[in-house]
Amino acid sequence: MDITSIVGIVLGLTAVVGGALLEGLHLSAITQPTAAIIVLGGTIGATTLSFPLRVILGAGKAFAKAFLEPKTKNASVISEIITYANKARKDGLISLESMIPTASDPFLKKAMSLAVDGTDPKVLRETMEIELAQQDETGEREAKVFETAGGFSPTIGIIGAVLGLIHVMQNLNDPSKLGEGIAVAFVATVYGVGSANLIFLPIGSKLKMKHKISMTAKEMMLEGVIGMLEGVNPRIIEEKLKGYLHESEKKSASGDKGAVEKEKIAA
Question: Cβ(241)–Cβ(78) under 8 Å?
Fold first, then answer.
C-alpha cells in the first residue's frame, strides 16, 4: 500500500470531520443523502459526459493505483536490464529469447522480442516510441478524469446549495421545512468543495506522479534494450540508466546489483 495516500486521505477527512465535531456540530448535520446525491451524482454525470467510455473505465481501474505502490521499481529495472545485457554480451543477443517470457513488463518483452529478431536500432526506437507515446497519453487521460471531477464538484455543490435555498423560499410559511432546506444548501457546498480538494484533485495528482514514474521506467527499458542491440558494454548501460534515478534510488540500485552478484556467485 502507498502509505502517503492512505495517511493523506484519512488525515484530511478526519481533520475536517473532527474539527466540526469539536465545535459541537452533530455528525447527522453533515450527513445529508440529498446533498450527496446531487453533488456526487452530478459530478459523476458531468465527468462521464466529458470523456469516452474507455477513458472512464480506465480511470475507474486506475483509482486503485493511487493507493498502491508501483509493482516495478526503477532501481530493479536497472538490475533486470543489466542481467539481460550481461547474458547478451556473453552468449549473444539470441540467447535472450528464452528469457523474454519472464520479463517484468509487457513493454520490455516487446522491445526484447524486436531486438532478438535483429531489428535495426533506429527502427526499434521509432516503433517503441510510438507505443510509449500512446501509453503516456492514456495515463494522462486517466489522471485528467479525476482532475475534471475536481473541477466540476464545487460547481455542482453550488447548484445543490441554490436548490436548497429554492426549497427554503417555497416553504417560508412552513417553518418545519426550513431547516432541512438550509441544511441541504450548506452541506451540498461542503460536499462539493470537500470532495474536490480532499479526494478528486489529490488522486489526480497522485496518478500523474505515478504515471510519470512508470513512463520513466519504460524509457529506461527502451534505452537498455537499444544499448544491448548496439553492443554497448553493460557497465556503460548501467551508468546511463542510473542517470534516470534520484539519489536514494541510486543507493537502492547499488543494493540490487549486489544481490544479483551474490546470486551469480552462489550459482
Answer: yes
Tell me the pLDDT of the chain (267 aa) as tens digits. 778 888 888 888 888 888 878 877 777 767 788 888 989 999 999 999 999 999 999 998 888 888 888 777 788 888 889 999 998 888 888 888 889 998 888 999 999 999 988 889 899 999 999 999 998 998 899 999 999 999 999 999 998 888 878 877 777 777 666 666 677 778 888 899 999 999 999 999 999 998 988 898 899 999 999 999 888 898 998 888 888 877 666 665 555 554 444 444 333
Which secondary-structure segment (H or E) carries 209? helix 201-229
How crowded is residue 77: how many other Cβ atoms within 10 Å of its Cβ? 25
Reduced DSSP (H G I as helix, E B as strand, rest coil) percent helix, strand, coil of the chain, to 5: 85, 0, 15
CA distances from 123 to 115, 116, 136, 167 (A): 10, 13, 20, 66
Question: What does the DSSP 8-state code read for residue 41?
Answer: I
Rounded CA separation 82/107 (Å): 17
For cell 471531477, the residue is: 149
Do residues 207 and 64 lie in contact, with contact meaning Cβ atoms separated by under 8 Å? Answer: no
Q: Read off the pTM.
A: 0.78
Q: Grid coordinates 534505452 are at which residue? A: 223
DSSP line for 132-200: HHHHHHHHHHHHHHHHHHHHHHHHHHHHHHHHHHHHHHHTTT-HHHHHHHHHHHHHHHHHHHHHIIIII
